[in-house]
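tokens incoming
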């Protein structure tokens, strides 16, 4: 066996023997041969010390379940067993080691023959060992389908401010009348806290009035997905409760703080492969994954589908071409919560009264809450309630996934009111969404004295509400939906309606929709509608429709160009003709809106002509925002959510994009405003590097930014002007002046030292950017780039420099003048007595 090992390692035994007899080669042979001989003999000697297990060392190529694991030193017994180091077996991926083991040179070796369920085959010619174990003994592989966030995301925490403003003026004719109005919204953020307040001012011919709307302070615990609000807010307690305006405190779980977190139940799939395989995963016929699998168990986790019923197919292909296809019908819904997740909102304060009419009108104390919990992937339970002085309402909810047949929700609630007494209410709803068919049903039943905060002062109370609907989708044929609803009040008012709607895409640009309905009640009527939408080009629409409702027929034509995200023009014009019981009526409604760099200007005109009488009205709107972030204050279009300030040095005219849509250009200070960033999302903010002069170096052209709620963020794209400093370095020694050729000069820049070489005649050249230091600054300042926080630059100034030449060291100051030239030629730089002359 040792001879076979020597042959494997290309050790010529005959040459070694001859070299031992050769005087000149004797010591060389010992020197080169001894290490290998000792490496092969020592394990054998050590193994020979194991009388119970006579083993012989051998190097084998090992394959585990047809996967090549490499070459290992093993010990072979005379009866064909193999002892492999325990650590090597673990490194190969075998999770459970149980069997006979021996100790060789202080290390544990396992007997393959003694290990249960293990099979092995030894190939003496190839010096290989093929091992097969059950897949459960091999490492498990987990593949997660959960959306992955970008690896490099900027999470800004700038202090910021914005003031949205809107001015409007309206005029009517023939009865001349006009009115003006001002609306505003203020947002101030510092750290994790933001203050928001909005108000409205109106003035007409009879009065003028200022009204504060809603004001609050919001604190977000982003990592915990929790929000605390102090001030005005809207609270809801669920289907059988009401939505109320409160002034007080709110504590909620807000999963939207992480839009990439999926709160709804997902599909997990587990399997096992005994051979190296390839797995393909299909969702409703669309491939969503192709992955190589090593032998062992595997988990496909968090498979997410859309729109209810779905079919997941897992296709496994082994090395022999055999294919296993597993079909897994499933149902995906956003109604339920994943197992173990909580969703809640607890609110208490005082009822806000006359919102929009009075600024500071608060009434009785009140509370509102809901709390839902995912008990399993199929069951969600919840509690909800609300109350105010003399009124309490409490309810519970259960939502159940009925296999692949849809979701059933049951809700019951009871109330106690010191005016109405006790009452109850209950709902049952069902919904199913398939690829070609969907259906829904609901029934709500209310006792006469069931009371919520919202209906406490209502005289006409609902007795029951019911509805059902179904829809069919047949691809190119179109889609058809049928809907029925009914309701009754305790005043014996019964209303029922039925409606059928059909829609079809005739071409990719042309869609036709028609519907027919009937309303049955005290005054029954028929409704008919047919409409066409044509999209002649990007962001353009031409629509025509005909409506018949009872005895009124209306024909409408509309032309529209959608408003661009950034600067640009949008418009809409609608012309309508109606046949009324008293005659004909015409209307004209054109609207034009222009988005400028700093604001939005919108104009609307409305004219009606009925029985020879004309009436007209016109409105003008001007809206915009004053914003502050990163020590910059500026003007932009209204801030819809969060906003950003992009800084590109002082370069004007650089195009800026939000999710690949142009939103503006940098001004003369190199700043551009982005008024429409989405809170918490990874907004891809980028610039067009073609707009940056070629003598600038960019640290990057795109960045993912995830801002907090209603915040402003400074986004810096570092652009540094490239300048090249050249000259001729000379040294004056005594009376002689000669070029300092082929030396390495060292210059101190701040706390760094850089070197530059000289060439023939003392010529030198280096650039003003210190390489290897570029990157986004930790301190974002959009008014000026803090040099210490970004890539260092050699600016105009005096820099201590030294070099050695012919055994002498010369120290001097290198003077770089202030200039915007790309090449700065210093001419002759002479080192004399420690001061340069240039």
């Amino acid at each position: 066996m040792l001879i076979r090992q020597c042959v494997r390692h290309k050790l010529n035994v005959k040459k070694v023997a001859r070299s031992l007899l050769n005087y000149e080669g004797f010591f060389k042979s010992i020197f080169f041969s001894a290490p290998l001989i000792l490496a092969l003999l020592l394990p054998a000697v050590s193994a020979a010390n194991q009388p119970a297990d006579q083993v012989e060392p051998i190097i084998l190529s090992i394959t585990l379940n047809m996967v090549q694991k490499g070459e290992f030193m093993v010990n072979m017994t005379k009866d064909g067993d193999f002892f492999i180091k325990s650590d090597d077996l673990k490194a190969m991926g075998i999770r459970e080691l149980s069997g006979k083991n021996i100790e060789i040179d202080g290390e544990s070796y396992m007997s393959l023959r003694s290990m249960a369920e293990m099979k092995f085959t030894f190939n003496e010619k190839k010096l290989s060992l093929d091992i097969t174990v059950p897949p459960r003994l091999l490492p498990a592989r987990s593949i997660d389908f959960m959306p992955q966030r970008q690896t490099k995301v900027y999470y800004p925490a700038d202090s910021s401010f914005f003031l949205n403003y809107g001015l409007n003026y309206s005029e009517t004719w023939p009865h001349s009348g006009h009115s003006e109005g001002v609306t505003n919204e203020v947002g101030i953020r510092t750290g994790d806290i933001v203050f928001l307040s909005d108000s409205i001012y109106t003035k007409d011919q009879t009065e003028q009035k200022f009204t504060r709307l809603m004001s609050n302070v919001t604190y977000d615990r982003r990592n915990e997905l929790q929000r605390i609000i102090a001030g005005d807010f809207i609270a809801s307690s669920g289907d059988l409760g009401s939505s109320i305006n409160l002034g007080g405190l709110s504590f909620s779980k807000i999963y939207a703080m992480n839009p990439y977190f999926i709160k709804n139940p997902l599909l997990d799939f587990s399997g096992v492969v005994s051979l190296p395989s390839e797995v393909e995963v299909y969702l409703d016929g669309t491939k969503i994954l192709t992955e190589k699998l090593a032998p062992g168990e595997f988990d496909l986790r968090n498979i997410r589908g859309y729109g209810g019923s779905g079919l997941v197919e897992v296709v496994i292909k082994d090395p022999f071409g055999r294919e296993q296809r597993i079909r897994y019908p499933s149902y995906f819904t956003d109604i339920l919560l994943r197992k173990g997740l909580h969703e809640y909102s607890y609110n208490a304060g005082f009822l806000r009264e006359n919102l929009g009419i009075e600024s500071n009108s608060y009434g009785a104390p009140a509370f509102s809450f809901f709390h839902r919990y995912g008990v399993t992937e199929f069951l969600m339970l919840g509690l909800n309630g609300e109350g105010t002085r003399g009124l309490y309402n409490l309810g519970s909810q259960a939502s159940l996934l009925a296999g692949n047949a849809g979701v059933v929700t049951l809700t019951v609630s009871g109330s106690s009111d010191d005016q109405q007494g006790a009452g109850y209410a209950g709902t049952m709803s069902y919904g199913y969404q398939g690829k070609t068919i969907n259906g829904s049903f609901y029934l709500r039943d209310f006792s006469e004295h069931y009371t919520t905060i919202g209906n406490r002062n209502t005289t006409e109370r609902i007795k029951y509400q019911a509805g059902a609907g179904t829809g069919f989708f047949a691809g190119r044929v179109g889609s058809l939906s049928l809907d029925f609803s009914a309701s009754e009040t305790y005043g014996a008012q019964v209303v029922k309606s039925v409606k059928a709607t059909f829609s079809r895409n005739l071409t990719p640009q042309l869609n036709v929709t028609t519907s027919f309905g009937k309303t049955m009640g005290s005054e029954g009527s028929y409704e008919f509608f047919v409409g066409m939408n044509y999209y002649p080009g990007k962001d353009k629409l031409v629509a025509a429709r005909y409506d018949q409702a009872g005895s009124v027929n209306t024909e409408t034509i509309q032309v529209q160009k959608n408003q661009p995200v950034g600067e640009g023009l949008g418009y809409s014009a609608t012309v309508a003709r109606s046949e009324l019981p008293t005659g004909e009526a015409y209307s004209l409604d054109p609207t034009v809106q222009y988005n400028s760099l700093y604001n939005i200007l919108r104009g609307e005109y409305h004219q009606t002509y009925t029985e020879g009488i004309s009436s007209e009205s016109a409105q003008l709107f001007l809206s915009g925002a004053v914003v502050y972030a990163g020590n910059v204050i500026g003007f932009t279009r209204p801030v819809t959510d969060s906003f950003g300030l992009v800084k590109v040095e002082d370069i004007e005219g650089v195009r800026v994009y939000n999710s690949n849509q142009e939103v503006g250009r940098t001004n003369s200070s190199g700043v551009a405003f982005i008024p429409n960033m989405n809170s918490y999302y990874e907004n891809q903010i980028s610039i067009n590097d073609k707009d940056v002069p070629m003598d600038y170096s960019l640290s990057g052209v795109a960045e993912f930014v995830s801002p907090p709620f209603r915040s402003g963020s400074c986004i810096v794209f570092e652009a540094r002007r490239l300048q090249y400093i050249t000259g001729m370095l000379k040294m004056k020694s005594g009376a002689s002046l000669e070029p300092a050729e082929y030396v390495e000069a060292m210059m101190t820049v701040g706390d760094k030292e850089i070197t530059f070489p000289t060439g023939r005649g003392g010529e030198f050249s280096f650039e003003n950017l210190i390489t290897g230091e570029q990157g986004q600054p930790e301190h974002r300042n959009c008014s000026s780039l803090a040099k210490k926080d970004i890539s260092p630059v050699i600016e105009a100034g005096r820099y201590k420099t030294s070099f050695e030449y012919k055994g002498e060291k010369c120290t001097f100051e290198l003077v770089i003048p202030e200039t915007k030239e790309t090449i700065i030629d210093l001419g002759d730089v002479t080192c004399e007595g420690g001061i340069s002359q240039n």
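note: The radius of gyration is 40 Å.
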